[in-house]
Amino acid sequence: MSKKGSLVIISGFSGAGKGTVVKELMKNYECYALSISATTRNPRPGEENEREYFFKTKEEFEELIRQDALYEYAQYVDNYYGTPKAYVEEQLAAGKDVILEIEVQGALKVKEKNPQALLLFVTPPSAEELKHRLIDRGTETMDVINDRMRRAAEESEIMDHYQYLVINDDLDTCVKEVHQLIQSQHLKVSENLDLVADIQKELKEMKGE
Amino acid sequence: MSKKGSLVIISGFSGAGKGTVVKELMKNYECYALSISATTRNPRPGEENEREYFFKTKEEFEELIRQDALYEYAQYVDNYYGTPKAYVEEQLAAGKDVILEIEVQGALKVKEKNPQALLLFVTPPSAEELKHRLIDRGTETMDVINDRMRRAAEESEIMDHYQYLVINDDLDTCVKEVHQLIQSQHLKVSENLDLVADIQKELKEMKGE
């Protein structure tokens, strides 16, 4: 089947556990690579260039924008964040399924440029459960939690642009479902047009015999 | 996730082993029901009405056509064959994933009336391998084998209307892949619009609190 990797976009509400799902995927299977974002913010202690982020100066980042070398980018609090194409394309060419863990607006921009990308949305079973999880973390103030819930309400308006909805109720089940959805991509006819053409040609030649 | 069953169309070259794949699915998993065709041909010894086929008179069958009670039908050698809607719809409503093992022309007709249906095409790894399998069966004359290969060449022209291509090289792998492709249907956002709407509504109400 198709040897090229698939581009996979995973989004979800803050608190849905998508970070954990992605970590488990990377740990359990060798077929995945994680897209690395570029940013102009300063590295934090322990962060390494080309591991957590591609750290760039403002000028370098703006050069990437000019060269159309990013799938998408956005500005938050004076810093740029974006998804460099080159790293993703290298990994895809090497046969890796590349995962972009990205918020909904960025996801739609990437999908526009890559119609064949797979869009997955990770959600807890209900909004109630989402709020419980954010509260149970115990690390956020109620102000932050309410902010996240407001943000989730906004994001939920875009959920129906995604192709698949994965409910993160049991982590192992969720990871397995995401893995299967991604691997199914390789069975799509549209990803195997070379094989289809080979079989058609071979059958035509046999008929001529 | 969605409780209603999915409609699944499985096609493939004669000799690709799709019958065996379908049998294994039915044996290994409880979630499937097999669509039963209607026909005007006479029952053969051992065949039972409502098990192998819905056996109908010509008048009864033509009445089904008039009532638009078939997804598709065709005539071969003076006999009608078709897929009655009622049985499929009952099974879907009961939450079963319903499998139609059907040839390519019929498949396209069913898909037209059921755009949400999943179309799978089962194929050996190559045309060469298909011919080997037909020969190795040892039950057919070379004339019949050549007929099947010609038919395969025709069918292969329609392969790219299918969504997924499943290579039947190792039977167990093939059955597992087909099962996963079908089960993934239940995670489609388009199959879970009620859940999406619930989450959107719940989040909106919380924001209003």
Spell out the key features of this protein.
21% strand, 45% helix, Guanylate Kinase phosphate binding domain, Rossmann fold, ATP binding (chains A, B), homodimer, 4-stranded mixed sheet, 209 residues, alpha/beta, transferase (chains A, B), kinase (chains A, B), GMP kinase activity (chains A, B)
Could you characterize the architecture of this molecule?
With 209 residues, chain A is of the alpha/beta class. Chain A folds into two domains: 1-31 and 97-209, P-loop containing nucleotide triphosphate hydrolases (Rossmann fold), CATH 3.40.50; 36-94, Guanylate Kinase phosphate binding domain. Chain A is 45% helix and 21% strand. Chain A has a five-stranded parallel sheet with strand order 2-7-1-8-9, sandwiched between helices. Chain A has a four-stranded mixed sheet with strand order 4-3-6-5. In chain A, helix 1 crosses helix 7. The longest helix of chain A is centred in the last third of the chain and has 16 residues, at 193-208. The two termini of chain A are 28 Å apart. Chain A binds chain B through residues 1, 121, 123, 126-128, 130-131, 149-150, 152-153, 156-157, 159-160, 162-167, 177, 180-181, 183-184, 187-189, 192-193, 195-196, 198-200, 202-204, 206-207, and chain B through 1, 121, 123, 126-128, 130-131, 149-150, 152-153, 156-157, 159-160, 162-167, 177, 180-181, 183-184, 187-189, 192-193, 195-196, 198-200, 202-204, 206-207. Chains A, B: It comes from Oliverpabstia intestinalis. Chains A, B: It is found in: Cytoplasm.
